[in-house]
Amino acid sequence: MVVEDNPGDFTLIEDFLFEQFDAPIIAHAESFKVATSFLSAVNCSYDVILLDLSLPDKTGESLILEVVRLCRNIPIIVLTGYADFSFGVKSLSLGVADYILKDELTSLLLYKSIIYSSERKKTIIALEESEKKYSELFHFSPLPMWVVDLASLKFLDVNHATIAHYGYSREEFLSMTLKDIRPEDEIAKLEQGLAADKQHPGENSRRVMIHQMKSGELRNVEIQVAAVQYKQTQASMVIATDITERLNYIQAIESQNEKLKEISWIQSHIIRAPLSRIMGLIPLIKDQNGGSDERDKMLDYLVLSANELDEVIKNITDKTRMADYQLLPK
Asked: CA 55 to CA 78: how far, in whole Å?
């Protein structure tokens, strides 16, 4: 679409377009109002907008801002007769793809500008979509995640899970540093971890730390750290997994196992003592003169029962050995 109120300039631009492109489809808007109606159409699908800055119903910066707002995904090339370099630079910052003086315009220059601007816009759109997907993955992750400035240790961004888990608001987090979520006796460990990360730039790291919630509660947290570039700042992205309950569970298992080992020792020693005495008396009873068949049968049953009791004690001892429960590496 060519937005141009001067018929002579439009004819020249049209000739240049037909010279460089095969049968281009050109829409001509002679005012901002007409351009707005074109851009508001349901089937609006322009590849590029060539915009004159001196229209009868709108001019200059306000014109650029309105057109950029109406067509964010379409490259806009400003064509103007005013050689104002500072405004040209400013217009680029407002969102236009290129700024060309009409006096310097040629068919080849216009062609290159359209091709370059279109490809650049595609790249920008792809980057914006990628950043949007990153933002969605970051903010809607069920695990606490944050980005921190490596130089100042200040929080640059935090996701919803971090806010919910730690109890601080987003505004509070953005005014804090990593040290603010550590108890005093953990600061040295934090600094050691940061120093280790600096010695291996580009490598991801994992370690277990103690974090302090806003309520003052201390939690064991396993963090995974990766270096990232965040808005031109060297930063780290951190994923935090609260492992407090897991560690408590392991400690409970270890404590229970210690009790079982103690029970096993008592059973194997205290019960075995009278059992040994019984088994020692059996030969003496058998050696007595004048034994009867019934007495021998009873003694045989006694031996059998003693052996069974001994086997039960061995099974108790075997089952209470601590072989499979180990703390996770820190």
From this structure: 12
